[in-house]
What we know:
Shape: globular
Order of helices and strands: HHHHHHH
Distance between the termini: 33 Å
Structural class: mainly alpha
Amino acid sequence: xxxxxxxxxxxxFYLTAGIIHLKSPHDFIAITPHWVPRIPLVxxxxxxxxIAGALAxxxxxxxxxxxxxxxxxxxxxxxxxxxxxxxxxxxxAGMHLSWWYHAPxxxxxxxxxxxxxxxxxxxxxPFRAKALPQTAATDHWQ
Length: 142
């Protein structure tokens, strides 16, 4: 999948998720760890952050890299909620999800981080390795 296609896929994913955070926050509130302060406010803020990040990623070229870094950081920051949901078997929409759902979900979180960074042009790995500059200090390692 090309960078542009992944950027659109992620943008639409985060835009949809952000709207759901704002329209139906109950399930997100339920999975948020209790140590997070002012949980309803945090859920609303994360919804707005997802929407802003998605729109910037898709529509504002000069903000694309910043949006990608923000969405990657967002994916890291929500990881405790995903862990909390998995470990405490917190139902979503009244449905308990098994480890057949949770294990891949948790394992794919780093992929979401990378996908945002790659789609936004922050990283090229693994598709285009950038050569290290030749210096006297690096010559002995080659």
